[in-house]
């Protein structure tokens, strides 16, 4: 069933949150290769984006990778503190010319939609055709994205760079 209103009841975000909390309690000094917890598979991009538009309060951070909804991090104090400081610094740096945004869905290819912790886009950036837009909003891609990982592994964060710099995007 790909109806977004029905997906919420089938996606077990609370179970994913429990798994991510268990990972966080493990030895934090050891780099473990973690890609996140799969909470749904075979999800079309359009269905995922519609779900995000109606998004109920979800207790984990998630993204769509290869048709799978993956819970990858927890919005706990260390994560949200860094996110708040960075977005505040970026806004203060040049808010007249830059649009500083929090979590924004970014289409990186036909099956992947990432949601970075913060991103920046010049206010005067040229409006793309709908086919080349960052998401259904029709806006251009940001020129900078920021990912903050507290539960997610460094390797997993590095893999995201490939998507962010894919041929479909024009992130610099």
TrEMBL record:
It comes from the Eukaryota. Signal peptide: none annotated. One of its GO terms (biological process) is double-strand break repair. Residues 46-157 form the Putative restriction endonuclease domain. Transmembrane segments: none annotated. It holds the Pfam family Uma2. This is 1423_t:CDS:1.
């Amino acid at each position: 069933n790909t109806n977004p209103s029905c997906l919420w009841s089938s996606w077990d975000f609370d179970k994913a949150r429990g798994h991510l909390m268990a990972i966080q309690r493990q030895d934090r000094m050891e780099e473990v290769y973690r890609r996140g917890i799969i909470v749904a598979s075979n999800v079309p991009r359009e269905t995922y984006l519609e779900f995000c538009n109606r998004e109920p309060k979800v207790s984990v951070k998630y993204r769509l990778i290869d048709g799978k909804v993956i819970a990858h991090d927890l919005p706990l104090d260390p994560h949200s503190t860094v996110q708040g400081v960075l977005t505040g610094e970026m806004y203060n740096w040049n808010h007249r010319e830059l649009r500083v945004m929090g979590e924004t869905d970014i289409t990186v290819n036909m099956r992947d939609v990432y949601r970075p912790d913060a991103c920046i886009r010049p206010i005067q950036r040229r409006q793309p055709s709908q086919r080349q837009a960052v998401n259904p909003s029709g806006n251009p891609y940001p020129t900078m994205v920021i990912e903050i990982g507290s539960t997610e592994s460094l390797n997993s964060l590095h893999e995201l760079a490939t998507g962010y710099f894919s041929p479909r995007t024009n992130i610099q």
